[in-house]
Design a protein that fits this description.
Number of strands: 8
Strand content: 5-15%
Shape: globular
Number of helices: 15
Length: 361
């Protein structure tokens, strides 16, 4: 019987090849602790670093807890309405709520939505100025209060967050509910530049100050062990495969899958063209397109130096005075690290070849 590939390229799923970075477990532990007062976490990292995997682990783990209600939301959807709809399906939400837009000066007729327990129905109703109506925020706050009274904690999750009017509105409501002392928790993932866009919103200070956890390179010993275990190879061969990945999570999964499916006569070098094709198309092209022209110039200069020495990079730049600015931006985007003083490094396998082929486009 043919064995099943234990590796996967599906976002948010690691399968049997999962390597624990500790980020998810730390956040779960803090959320479950009665002594903690941290309610919001942001998971950041380079595209393909494994943010969604850690996010998924948090969502799935807390969903299994009987005193938690967990609602993952799509960043591109109508997050407030979706959250209200999901909460309205809970059995303990049995109050009827009428919602509509009402003119402040005249009576109007129109559709309203009645939310009751497990269903929503459209009804026709004449609305007058002296009727009492509730905003989405009032409805959502009441639902969260009711859930808390029933001893439930609420976790809201947004993977790959981006700034939209709807998401800003939801975050503002969450901030208000936290000030009221409600048990509502939030975990999001996203690229640093996307998360930073929310910092310009004056009423989202709580989100700006919330703890951020960066997903860094996977441990080389863990990767070697998993390759040895899942590929059935000896430790020296597993180490050779690991060295190609440079700890990049997506590369770890892609290369593992390709090696698992290769012919017995094929070598590691034989599958490199396919590895590069997948990495270039699915990851590096998106990363490259997200950079400004100045950032791209610095990346090209890093590779042209050969060793990434800062002084050599500056000599190659059109305007060396921009070095510090672009260096900070690339570090903030998790593309470049400066752990070795005076040097810059990019931890993406075969990225130098991508730059050589496509770096001038």
């Amino acid at each position: 019987m043919k064995k099943t590939d234990p590796f996967t390229r599906t976002p948010g799923i690691a399968g049997k090849a999962y390597i624990d970075t500790g980020v998810a477990d730390e956040i779960i532990s803090i959320f479950l602790s009665d002594d903690s007062f941290k309610y919001v976490y942001k998971i950041t990292g380079l595209r393909g670093s494994g943010k969604s995997v850690e996010y998924s682990r948090i969502i799935r783990t807390l969903k299994e807890k009987k005193d938690w209600l967990v609602y993952p939301l799509s960043a591109s959807g109508e997050v407030v309405n979706t959250l209200i709809s999901k909460l309205s399906m809970e059995k303990f939400i049995d109050s009827k709520t009428v919602r509509t837009a009402v003119s402040s000066t005249t009576s109007v007729s129109g559709s309203a939505v009645v939310v009751s327990g497990n269903e929503s129905v459209n009804v026709q109703r004449t609305i007058s100025d002296n009727d009492h109506f509730y905003s989405d925020e009032a409805i959502l706050t009441k639902m969260i209060e009711t859930a808390n009274e029933k001893k439930y904690k609420i976790l809201i999750g947004i993977d790959d967050i981006s700034k939209t009017k709807e998401v800003v509105g939801l975050l503002s409501m969450i901030g208000s509910m936290l000030l009221e002392g409600l048990k509502i928790y939030l975990v999001v993932t996203g690229l640093s530049e996307n998360i930073e866009e929310f910092s310009t919103e004056k009423n989202l200070t709580f989100f700006k100050r919330a703890d951020a956890k960066e997903i860094k390179a996977l441990n080389k010993f863990d990767i070697t062990y998993m390759y040895e275990k899942l590929l059935g190879v000896k430790s020296d061969e597993a180490k050779t495969i690991e060295e190609v990945t440079m700890g990049y999570a997506y590369a770890y999964q892609v290369l593992g899958s390709l090696y698992f499916g290769k012919e017995a006569s094929e070598t590691l070098e034989d599958i490199m063209p396919e590895f590069e094709r997948i990495m270039f198309r699915d990851s590096y092209d998106l990363i490259w397109k997200s950079l400004t022209e100045g950032e791209k110039e610095l990346v090209r200069c890093i590779y042209r130096t050969g060793d990434g020495k800062a002084e050599s990079i500056k000599k190659l730049m059109n305007n060396a005075s921009n070095y510090s600015v672009y260096r900070s931006r690339l570090i903030n985007k998790h593309l470049v690290d400066s752990e070795k003083r005076g040097y810059l490094r990019i931890g993406l396998p075969r990225f130098e070849k991508f730059i050589e082929l496509w770096g001038d486009e």
